[in-house]
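Continuing the series of single-chain predictions for the mutant panel. This is the parent chain; the variants come on the following pages.
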Amino acid sequence: MKKCCLISLMLCWMLSLSAQFLHPGDTIAIISPSSATDTTTINGGIRTLEKWGYHCVVAPNALNDYHGFAGTIDERLSDLLWALREPSVKAIMCSRGGDGAAHLLSRLSLDTLRQYPKMIIGFSDVTALLCAEARAGVKGIHGSMCYALKTYEGTDTVSQALRRMLAGDLPTYRVAPHPLNITGKAEGTIVGGNMSVFNDLAGSDFDPIMLDDIILFIEDTGEGMSKVDRMLHNIEVRGLQSHVRAVIVGQFNKYKHPENGFDDMYAILHEYLQHWHIPVCYDFPVGHAHLKNFPLLTGVKATLEVGSDGVTLHY
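Parent structure:
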């Protein structure tokens, strides 16, 4: 089996069959549930997806701009519901993140997501939709959107990992050890993403940490260490750390440090996570830097093994 290496990451692929994965010629809908975007970004993403053998359709309101959002809440929700209900659409890619996806959840039911189980692809603000799908028992993909597919033209290792995942080739990720890792093995449903986004879903029907037996992955950008401290405390004060079987710590960037006597974000995360007595993996390649944002299939079972010689995540 051929292995590809990038920094400390090795990808091994195995075939997984599911009606929800894609086949050549399938249609992917492009929607903009969050911030406003532009034609260049969407068209660039479409060029890559078409090169991969898919047909793309753009939602009617995907290029709208309403106070910085890609349309009103009604317009953005209308596009999402259209993409879910349209029989020819097999998956949904978000054009970009930003802000605003959570607006749609107050008008979206878990039953609707269960009735139309289609993979939503995106990260950052799209975390809100991925968490909703996970609560509905539907899988999604935390991964690159139109901007990255336009910028890198789909030829880089991260984009190729997404290409394979869309088709049902699921990876085994192998990551180098980190000094703060906590060893152990756990199985659970992969949920999480942008920490500040899913934290704002706390207590709602879409809160991913309300699920039992989860592997929680976290990443963020531009959030201060004090804010992350409060988010961790929020999980603990609600007693939900007992739902978490393991934690995957991704990339945190664009924050001020040191703060509160801690040198960096991993140090403050370790202050909490060491007391949860579960496996923890640090420096996993998922986050806001594209070349460190390998796709994760969310809402499905996976196994995380954290050893002294490295980390393995497989579905």
